[in-house]
Amino acid sequence: MSFRGKRKGGTDHASDETDGHAPPNKASKISAADDSDDSDDIVVCEISKNRRVSVRNWNGRIWVDIREFYVRDGKQLPGKK
Questions:
Q1: Which parts of this chain are annotated as the region Disordered (predicted)?
Q2: Which of 16, 26, 80, 81 shows the greatest Cβ crowding within 10 Å of its Cβ?
Q3: pLDDT of the residue at 61
Q4: Could you tell me the sign of the dihedral formed by the alpha carbons of 21, 27, 28, 29, in that order?
Q5: Between these two residues, 67 and 23, which has the higher pLDDT value?
Q6: 59/81: higher pLDDT
Q7: Which among 30, 68, 36, 29 has a CA at the least distance from the CA of 49?
């Protein structure tokens, strides 16, 4: 059963645009930059010697990263996700 396609019984959105009402303007990127203070809320937990979990709130969503790290030239570098 495919749900893709036109909806039955719905109004046509093209007719809504011709009513003379302009679509609302998008928010500026400057105001979005002010919301970037949530990036400071990062929690990092070590699972094992080479594995870490980080939980962060970004863009209104909660993101969980599980990464493995390796040591090269005395620096810990992240592996693939």
A1: 1-39
A2: 16
A3: 92
A4: negative
A5: 67
A6: 59
A7: 68
Q: What is the CATH number of the domain that holds 63?
A: 2.30.31.10
Nearest to 40 by CA among 56, 25, 28: 56
22: its two tokens:
């302009």
φ, ψ at 60 (rounded to 5°): 80, 5
Range of the domain at 71: 38-81
Confidence at residue 46, expressed as pLDDT on a 0 to 100 scale? 92
Residue 32 belongs to a domain: no
**Cα–Cα distance, 69 to 81 (Å, whole number):** 10
Residue range 8-40, pLDDT digits in tens: 665 555 555 556 666 666 554 544 445 555 456
Distance CA 42, CA 63 (A): 10
Please count the structural domains in the chain.
1
For residue 39, give the amino acid letter.
S
Total Cβ atoms within 10 A of residue 77: 9
Tokens linked to 64? 């969980």
